[in-house]
Each structure stands twice: as C-alpha cells, then as structure tokens.
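Researcher: Quick sanity check before group meeting.
Model: Go ahead. Protein one:
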Amino acid sequence: MKRIAVIGAGNFGKNHVSNFHKLGALKVVAEPNEELRAKLSAEYPDVKFIPDYAPLLESDEVDAVSIVTPVFTHHTIGMEFLKAGKDVFIEKPMTLDSGEALQLVEMAEAEGRILMVGHLLIYQPAIAKIRELIAEGAIGDVFTYHQERKKLGKARSVESALWSLGVHDVAVLHHLIGEAPTEVVASGHCGLQSAIADDVYLHATFPSGVKANIHNSWLWPERRFQLTIAGSKGFLVYDEGKHTVTLHKKSIDPETLENSDDGEEIVFEGSAQPLEIELSHFLDCLETREAPKSDGRSALEVVRILEQAGL
C-alpha cells in the first residue's frame, strides 16, 4: 500500500483525511491551523500531523500527496511535489489558468509521475450508468445536455460560481461526450461582488453537433442538482439529490412532428461514496502506474473550457 500525505485538512480536506485513513494509506497530514491539527490528531492518533508540507518534499516517508488547498496554490504545491518525485492528486479545479495546468501535466509526464485531479462526479456510479445507456442507444442520437447546479451556497472571493460549482458539470460533459467543444459562450451576473459572477449560464457546441447548457449559481433559493440529456428517442434525467437516473420514453417524430409518450422508468437508483471510490482509484493507479480516469490531460481540457467562458 502506497503512503499518502494530505496537504490541507480544512472543509473538504478533512474528507480526504478520513477516506485515506479508512483505506489504510494515510501517513501524514500537513495543516497550518494549530487548533484543527490538534482536533484531528486526537481523532487519528496513528497519523503524523505537521504545520508545513515543506519537510515532505525531501522525505521518503510518503509516496504521494493529496493537495486540498485553495485553488490558487495548486500549481505551486503540485509542481514542488512532482519535481520531488512524488505522485500527486489535486482537488478540482486543477488550476485557474490553462498555462499552469499544462505545466503540471508536462512536469508529471517528464517525471513519470501519476497526476490525478478530483473530478468527483465522474466517479459516481450513476454517471457510469448514463454513459452505458448512451452507448447502448437508449435515447437514440444525443441532441443536448442540460446541467443545473445551483443553491444558496458558499460565495467565493477568487473564483466565480462557474469555476466553483460548474467545474463538476464541465468535467462530466467532457467525460460523457468525449471531445472538446468548438465554441463556448457564457454570461454571468455579479451581484455580491463587482467582478465575481454569482450566477452563470454556459453554452457549448461540440464537433459532433451536440450542444450543452449549464446553469450554476450559489445565489439561488433552492438546491437543484440535475442533469437532463435529450435524444432522438427519449431523455435521461439524473437527480443527484434523489440518486436516481430516469429514462423518459418520450419523443417527437421528425417527419410528422407527432408526440409519443411511453412513460418513464427509473433505470438506476442508489447512492454511493464517490470520494472513497475516487481515492481508491488513485491508490490503484499508484500501484499499476496506469493513467487515472481523471488524469492531468483530461483535467487540462476542463480548465480550458472554463477559461474559454471568460468568467
């Protein structure tokens, strides 16, 4: 079993700590907050806690690191550990700049290191089921994707709602469609801060002719996380809150323009722990040296799409 250090044990980092510990791989946690270190140290007495990650760069006590720090630090910390010969997991988004993302990818490739990015949603079993159904032709030719991720959420002062929330949706689009868009157009509204969009609409066109629409907002009265895929023979609707994928057997005949409705069917139901699945996949890749499902190259494309939006 490879030995892991988690860099940053805050709001989401603590989930990496608990999952890597559960998987038997956690050896060190670097967290500058003394109070948080003390609390977690009492909870995980078999783990070493340190205030600064710097000593790990020259240490042989860990094989890989999981970086769960503010996004603007990802490039610097990631480059340091790749240069030090460590495999690296970076939480999403990989960076806020495609140039920095490319540097991480090229450094990982040059050093023969595993670079994986935390695009959590593509490890959700429901997404695997959707991919399978599309490949089987369950809804015929795919026309459009419509993704909604909006709630009264945590407003950010550095990245927009698109970069904070929409990164999940863009990663899923790239994973399901399997190609980069030829056109990306976005519009956003800055209500809380003058230059940070709280509410964003993104529209993308892909070489295959498929179009996608994303609506992200942390300034919304209700929680709505849903993916709707429209095809020539029906629709797939993934409700993240209910953990269901529903096949709607509904369509419009292109010749007669007549509607048909053969009802609907829940084709997948059940929740999982995608973070545990994702981190377990990372550990497997460390052993096999195979490219992760959300490797640096795929994450680079996600950053490029977000960058094209200009928000």
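Researcher: Fine. The other one?
Model: Protein two, sequence then structure:
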Amino acid sequence: MVSTKTLYNYIDMDVLSVRNIDLPMKTRRKTKTPRVRGNRRILGRGIAERPAEVEDRNEFGHWEIDTVEGLKSGDNALLTLVERKTRNYYAILIDDQDHDSVDYALTQLREDFGDLFPEVFKTITSDNGSEFSGLTKGLHGITDVYFCHPYSPYERGSNERHNGLLRRYIPKGKAISDYSPEAIKRTYQTLNQLPRKILDYRQPAVLFEEEVSKLEEKLRNKVKVKTAS
C-alpha cells in the first residue's frame, strides 16, 4: 500500500499511465511554496480572536464568506456564504465585486431572515478583500465579523471548497451575467441537496432547516413568555 503523495509522485514521474491532465482537481492545486506576504491590512478583528466554538463546528450559526468573480470587466459577481456546521451554501448574484454590492446583498439577507438573522448568523469569517470593507460596520451589534490572515484562503476552507464545486456549474471564463438568479439558486440548492460523508451522508439543506426550525421554536417560546408576563 503506497501513500497518496507517492502516487502523485509516480504520476509526475510518468511511472503510471495516468497523467495530471486526467486529474482535474490535481491540476488546480498550487505546487509552488506559498510566499509569506504580510503587508496587506486587516479590515477588522483577526481570526485569532474568533471563539473556540467556531473552530470545532459543533455550534450552528458560524459562516465563511467570499466572492466569485465573473469576467474581468462589466460582469456580475457572486457573493457566497457557507455555514460551517451544516455546510449549507448560498451563492447570491451581485452587480460586481464592490463593497456596496456586498453590503446590499447582506442587507437583503437580513430582511429575509428577519428577527432570526442574529442567531442564524452569529459570526462571519472573511478575507481582507476591499469588497468586505463594510462588513464590520454594517453588521455591528448584529453579527461578529472576523478576518483571516492575509493571503490565507485555507482559513476559509469550507467556502473555498464549495466555490470549487460551484465552478463545475459556472466555469471560469463564463460570464456570470449569462445566468439568471433562478438558475444560480437552482445550482446552490443542488449542492445543498448532495449527501455528504462528513455529515454522515445527510444533506446540508436538511440539517440547515432543522437548525433554523429550532431557532424559530426558541423565538416563539420567548415571545410567549414575554406576552404572558
């Protein structure tokens, strides 16, 4: 039995009949040693300040956020979010990768969830892109926002993984404006309905709905107590 690394080495050395071009996920992997670049500013509280319960994925309501770009100019973009416990994923069509577009999309999301939003979105972890410069201010007192170390996408690994899955349906080089909001919604809903081994083969959408239902019941009980008093 040989290790995965040994198999990859055999492929690189042409020992096997399989070639790198036959492995689409491998060709996307970075082979260069990452450079340490620390000159990019942090937009808010760093990921080191994030509570431990976010890291262990046992508590619901902790998200990772990113954008998926379309063509270089004149195209739409996608705002993507994934919940760390359930792996439920959103891909929201936005005008472009500007902070105003991101802020507007999050405002719409807040309206969709209403009073549940602070419980559904306890924390959001972001990179330091300028499109997220308004996160801390826009969600102040509602959702705690944390920022990864510069040039460290692995600190938002779930989001990166899901964006890769999304690219199977909306490949790079294809204009995002060619897709309707309905088509994009069907795409991320398809991903949310895929059973995951890491979730004991349950579907992210089902787990997410279960968690939201618990919060709705909690909110109803809270209202009843308040009304009774």
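Researcher: One line on it for the slide.
Model: The chain has nine helices and five strands.
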